[in-house]
Amino acid sequence: MEDIKIIDLTPDNISNYGVCGYKDVNKHLELRNKIEWVKEFYPKGLRIKAVISEKGGYQGMLEYIPGKYAHRPVEADGYMFIHCLFVGFKKEFKGKGLATALLDVCIEEAKNCKMLGVAVVTRKGSFMADNDIFLKMGFQIVDNAKPDFNLLALKFNETSQNPYFKIKNHENLEEYKKGLTIFRSAQCPYTEKNVNAIMESAKKMNLTVELIDMKNIDFIQNSPCPFGTFGIIYYGKIISHHPVSNTRFENIMRKEIKS
Q1: Rounded to two decimals, what is the model's pTM?
Q2: Which of 222, 147, 234 is nearest to 182 (CA)?
Q3: Is the predicted pLDDT of residue 1 greater than 60, yes or no?
Q4: Which of 90-107 are b and which e, b meaning 16 or more Cβ less than 10 Å from the residue's Cβ?
Q5: At 33, which helix (H) or strand (E)?
Q6: What is the CATH number of domain 4-165?
Q7: Which end of the chain has the lower number of beta carbons within 10 A, N or C?
Q8: CB neighbours of residue 175 within 10 Å
Q9: Phi/psi at 19 (5° precision)
Q10: Burial status of residue 120 (CB atoms within 10 A of its CB: 0-12, 13-18, 19 or more)
Q11: Does domain 174-258 have CATH number 3.40.30.120?
Q12: Do residues 50 and 71 lie in contact, with contact meaning Cβ atoms separated by under 8 Å?
């Protein structure tokens, strides 16, 4: 598409473009938190490539970071690690090769940085890209975690060690068996949305609620939830792996309380 360009979002310009649909710094706490997060990790190699259309505006993004700082419970040191990939807020921007163009940029940078390859966690459903685009680009599934998460890698040398999930089967849940525990990180702006409402609903249900803002890389990389930057645990059981609305939370809890 002729009016499309891929730009770098940096600590200096991210507030001009927004991210993940959040555009107003004054209105959106999610964006303000994301900007502070970008300021912390940009010097460590974080990069966000945004697809900008002169007519359609912000139409997609790719976020990646050296695996040492991956915000997923993985061991991927030496790899470039992809956090997020999506394109096409508007239908006319889907199926135009934009995702491939973004991945090409990431792969080229990983090669220039002499990294082992590129890795990503995928899942069918909300908030994560599925396998298809990555498999087409030559990635291979190298590990998985319950219930339906895959870890894919594009290795530049087949003899390199595969990245892997640190937690595969919902281990490390023993310490979260009292009431409701909510994990979130500023890496994903959507993890801010509705959390306050969820906490209020939980309190009305007379649940003990603990909110954990995940700011430590080691903590995130050892998260009991494969999504890494969000999770809701109810008496030792993961009831949500990705951000949900308060309505969805209440529906989940009604079923849990009845069971």
Answers
A1: 0.92
A2: 234
A3: no
A4: eeebeebebbebbbeebb
A5: helix 29-41
A6: 3.40.630.30
A7: C
A8: 10
A9: -160, 140
A10: buried
A11: yes
A12: no
